[in-house]
């Protein structure tokens, strides 16, 4: 929809940022951001959000993605402040469930200067691969990420494939720690308190 830029679909640059793209049925990963004029008159400006990685399961004919409600710069900033903006995603006219994660940028002045490289890194760290135009494999770390709910839904974590090699286990463990840190930072004060209590009980 107007005001949304599609950047990457299943690890590949989108055919068009601002018009229709073709996707396959099944699990799909879409990287998008909001690029929308907000405000009125002389105070009108374009608000560009950070890119977000959205995971959806397509079973219908048409998926529409609309940006969070944002009529002013203040409203836009408030919508994205939490890290879980309310994208309005529908499939054939019905609300479509999704999970999301803000794409991790670099430190410095232009954190998203090379989105393609950041998307590749995001997927590599989570063991996400693509086959036949859709999401093919998701590692344990990605399942942890999927547990971070948007206001829409948390999708069921995919079944994981066991690995017999020992070397990748170290990488996966490191990724799990990073994901747990990210999950903790996104949690509310009440959720953090409950998690710490649970963690102490496990000792």
Query: H/E element string?
Result: EEEEEEHEEEHEEHHH
- Structural class by SSE content: alpha+beta
**Whole-number tally of structural domains:** 1
- Which value, in Å, is the CA radius of gyration? 18 Å
Characterization of this structure:
Belongs to the UPF0319 family. Pfam families: DUF2057. This is DUF2057 domain-containing protein. Keywords: Signal. Helices cover about 30% and strands about 25% of the residues. By secondary structure, it is an alpha+beta fold. It has one domain (about 5-165). Strands 1, 2, 3, 4, 5 and 9 form a six-stranded antiparallel sheet that branches. It has a three-stranded antiparallel sheet with strand order 6-7-8, with no helix packed on it. Strands 10-11 form a two-stranded antiparallel sheet. Helix 3 (about 140-145) packs parallel to helix 4 (about 165-185). The protein is globular. About 25% of the residues are buried. The model is unreliable at about 140-170 (pLDDT under 50).
């Amino acid at each position: 929809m107007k005001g949304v830029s599609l950047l990457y679909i299943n690890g590949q640059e989108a055919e068009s940022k601002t018009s229709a793209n073709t996707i396959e049925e099944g699990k799909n990963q879409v990287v998008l951001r909001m690029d929308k004029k907000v405000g009125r008159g002389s105070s009108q400006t374009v608000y560009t959000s950070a890119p977000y990685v959205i995971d959806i399961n397509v079973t219908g004919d048409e998926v529409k993605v609309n940006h969070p409600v944002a009529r002013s710069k203040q409203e836009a900033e408030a919508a994205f402040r939490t890290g879980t903006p309310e994208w309005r995603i529908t499939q054939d006219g019905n609300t479509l469930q999704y999970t999301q994660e803000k794409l991790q940028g670099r430190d410095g002045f232009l954190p998203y200067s090379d989105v393609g490289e950041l998307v590749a890194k995001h997927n590599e760290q989570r063991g996400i691969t693509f086959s036949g135009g859709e999401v093919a494999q998701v590692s344990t770390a990605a399942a942890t990420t999927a547990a971070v709910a948007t206001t829409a839904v948390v999708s069921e974590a995919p079944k994981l494939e066991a690995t017999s090699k020992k070397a990748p286990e170290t990488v996966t463990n490191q990724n799990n720690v990073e994901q747990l840190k990210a999950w903790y930072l996104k949690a509310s004060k009440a959720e953090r308190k409950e998690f710490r209590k649970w963690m102490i009980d496990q000792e």
